[in-house]
Amino acid sequence: MARITRVLAAVIAIGFGLITLAGLLVGEGLGFLSAFVDGLRVRDLAGLFLQLVVITAAVTVLIGVVNLLLVHLRRVRQRACGWVYSTVLLAAAVAVLAATVLERAGVLTGDPPLTRLLLEDVQVSVESALAGLLLFALVYGAVRATRSQRFSGWALLFTLALLIALAGALPLPELAPLAEARSWLLAVPVSAGARGILLGIALATLVAGVRVLIGQDRSYRE
Amino acid sequence: MDTTTQFVGIVLILVALVALVVAAQVQRRRQQAFALRPIPAYEALPDLVGAAIEANRPLHLSLGSAGLGGNSTLLALAGTELLYQVAQRSAISAVPPLFTVSDTTAIPLGHDTLRRAYQARGLLERYRPGAVRWYPAGPRSLAFAAGLTAAMGDDNVSANLLVGSFGPELALIGEAAHRRDQPLIAASDQPEGQAVAYAFSDQPLIAEELFAGGAYLSTDAAQVGALVAQDVLRWLLIAALVVSAVLAAAGGG
Fold this sequence. Notes:
The complex is a heterodimer of chains A (222) and B (253). Chain A has 222 residues and is an all-alpha fold. Chain A is built from eight helices and no strands.
């Protein structure tokens, strides 16, 4: 029975995948392929499948909320490390949920609404503070990257590039040559490296996609 | 999409398909047919799992904002393959690995992967649904990073394996890992996140290496075939770039 279920799941996933791929990839001007896709209305089917994905993804938000509440309820019940923070999280979640329901019911009125205040004055402020901390963490990372490597040509090159990038950003006319060197670094080697990384990821994604489409992914085989 | 792009897309998929199937078959018939170059992060991973089991502490894996249904779907699948390998190795431990995500679509994927890993070892009774946790991400994923730094301390994790979609917020997580003396292996599909991952990781993974976990940590011929297919496509891409550059130079001359 389990084997039949596995095969059925694989057939459904592969079938839906191939139909969606054909609907998205095959357009006009590809001869019999275009005629095939047009004749079977594959593009409409692909659009329908994508809409189903959006709806399913929306449902998983509920799963996420339940997961979050259950994890923190368990922490409070077990008095695990940091259970006090879990209590605050649960209380905040219940309070925000109640405020939203009361606002929608017209019981809680105010301009601006309380939930918007909570989002803009609490959530955004906390995230902005974290963004400020991020700067220090990034500087720490840069220092660590220069210190942790053993002395080598690559380490020297890395440190030199870092110094040029930092010094070249200073608004001092005396450092104009460094600013030019920085611009060149960002436009040529950095840009080429980033493109190389993205191309590598794109190729790996393509191959991983083909593996899924032909049923070689582990989830189909176990 | 114009006809040329469609045509090239179809050809690339067909080349990948043929290379994948042929390489997997060759690998099945002749083990060690394709030698894999050493990747320090994957070489270090079994030791990290062993250390976590001995210390009775969880290993922390995170996908970041990778999830199903979007551009990062296949990245999420690659990340959960890594989770499968780690969970299978650490199934004998009393403490299950901690799996964190910020995309809710990755929650069922994480549960399914963990369940299958424990089932494969015949230890399904040790599977704990609470091992998969969702930390909501704000507009810049900073809330997710803050949640993770707290969880890493509260759960006293043994090591961190962050393989997925991360931005510069990875620096907050990396800094917290170093403060607590927790080893870190990180990689991201975003260039900014990848740069931070390289600076903070004890053993960095770069670009497509984050898709190679399954091939390095298992003896699965299909996974090795996927790496060979990637290499075939890479050489074709290099050839296309060189030819187009030569043609452009000749045309310009």
